[in-house]
Amino acid sequence: MARMSQGIRVAAVDDDRMLLDGLGTWLAQTGDIALTVAAATVDELLGDPRDGIDLVLLDLVLRDGSDPVDNVRRLIAADHRVLVLSVWSRPHEIAAAFAAGASGYVTKDHDLATLASVIRTAAGGETVYTPPLAMAFLEDPRPDRPRLSTREREILLAYASGMTLTTAARHVGVRPDTAKTYLDRVKAKYLERGRPTYTKLDLADRVREDGIH
């Protein structure tokens, strides 16, 4: 992955030529973000020999009929950070794209200042939580997401963030043995959904996959 001291190099995968042309002109106004590669498909982007891309802006729904989640996975496997930039899509598609490794989701109707800020955040390796992404998690109908209580979610977030179980219990305001009970329930609920979760790393993965925050 290229360093961004010389500015942020962005690639875009979108089959709307007019949008791509406008996006390039728009981003040039920021002074630190440049659209360096534009492609109509993920295949086209991955076949481009240019490197040093800091972030890929990916439209979820492309005319080639490619699977949105598979597109995210392929780009992540090629060591690209991915930000989904699209019109409103079905909640489960947005949530699944995030679970596949996308750094966030933003709709195309944002102004330049907002888009530039989101790009800088994602290119810097951080996750971009936006209202549409939060809404997608709330409405995501996938059956493999367990229903967690407020306390279970709080302990999961605290423990998965790197705290010890004792520190997580103190952070939430419960006894360590109570915190362990909550954590055991979380693991059991994921196991029931066919998603075994044993280690702290597993728990951190579930937090990301399910957009728990």
Automatic annotation (TrEMBL):
Keywords: DNA-binding, Phosphoprotein, Transcription, Transcription regulation. One of its GO terms (biological process) is phosphorelay signal transduction system. GO terms for molecular function: DNA binding. InterPro entries: CheY-like_superfamily, Sig_transdc_resp-reg_C-effctor, Sig_transdc_resp-reg_receiver, WalR-like. Residues 9-123 form the Response regulatory domain. The modification 4-aspartylphosphate is found at D59. PANTHER family: TRANSCRIPTIONAL REGULATORY PROTEIN NARL-RELATED, TWO-COMPONENT RESPONSE REGULATOR. This is DNA-binding response regulator. The lineage of its organism: Bacteria, Bacillati, Actinomycetota, Actinomycetes, Micromonosporales.
